[in-house]
Amino acid sequence: xxxxxxxxxxxxxxxxxxxQRFTKxxxxxxxxxxxxxxxxxxxxxxxxxxxxxxxxSRASVYRTLNLLCECGLIERVTKTEHGTIYEHTFGHExxxxxxxxxxxxxxxxxxxxxxxxxxxxxxxxGFLGVSHTLEIRGYxxxxxxxxx
Amino acid sequence: xxxxxxxxxxxxxxxxxxxQRFTKxxxxxxxxxxxxxxxxxxxxxxxxxxxxxxxxSRASVYRTLNLLCECGLIERVTKTEHGTIYEHTFGHExxxxxxxxxxxxxxxxxxxxxxxxxxxxxxxxGFLGVSHTLEIRGYxxxxxxxxx
DNA sequence: TTGCAATTGAGAATCAGTCTCAATTTTTTA
DNA sequence: TAAAAAATTGAGACTGATTCTCAATTGCAA
Lengths: 148, 148
Fold this sequence. Notes:
2 copies of one chain form a homodimer. Chain A is 47% helix and 24% strand. By secondary structure, the first copy, chain A, is α+β, with helices and mostly antiparallel strands. In chain A, the strands form 2 sheets. Chain A has a 3-stranded antiparallel beta sheet. The first copy, chain A, has a 3-stranded mixed beta sheet with strand order 5-4-6. In chain A, α3 crosses α4 (58-70). The first copy, chain A, is globular and about 50 Å long. The mean pLDDT of chain A is 90. At the A-B interface, α5 and β6 of A face α5 and β6 of B.
């Protein structure tokens, strides 16, 4: 596995600044988190870590995911009936999602126009935007065909 | 309280079409749901119904909210740590939300440009959009002032 | 009215996520 | 370096939202 040096540095600096420690448990969770290409959920992450023989607990996974969110390395994508979906954002372009309500497939997309438009909307409301999620629900290409 | 005749009709027709019944319990939940001006959560709705002396149960409230979502009279706005937030949509313009991460305040807004832009984005992906949620998180005017 | 299917409500069950706390590890202090 | 202080860990208890179970009730069609 590729060592994610930059992410490690960011996380350990973030922790140090808050008087917290970059333990090996946290390092392991960070590594596994980054090994996902797309979206993931806490439970699979927990199992993935267990599989590789490392010792950890659900509590630590959840705690660490919260820390990783706070320092901006990962983000909560959406909350489903089955819990929260995360993705890592550092080194990835920001994007939004289309969610197929038939097959659950998630399509990522990005639009510069959309970003600009949102900035304008915030300004108009005197709102200081920090992050956003646009989720378009509907039917993906394949599922549209099936329905006919 | 104003009788919501149209909503009643929509709901009872929706139920009948599925071989389900428009019971007085469901009618009561519909009424109280519509009596909210803005956002609400299932627990307060449940308590509100209890307060007025009507008999109901959490199970029925949740069940009915799901039905009301399915027939489009209400919508899930967002899922927070403390559960799902709903709003009724029938007879209201579609809109999106800005969510203040300091005070929890929700600002509604609407943008024609945004709607058009999204249609374009869907078309480009071959995606058939049904609904969407845009949630911009950040700081509202008041909380920006406080932070300085 | 009879009979079947749908509905209800009380409480049990579920499930994601958080909390507790004793044991452990790391850092700081003397 | 030893001892004290502080942070972290993991197991499992706990919480709170939501769903499920099931016996009792209700509504509707014949």
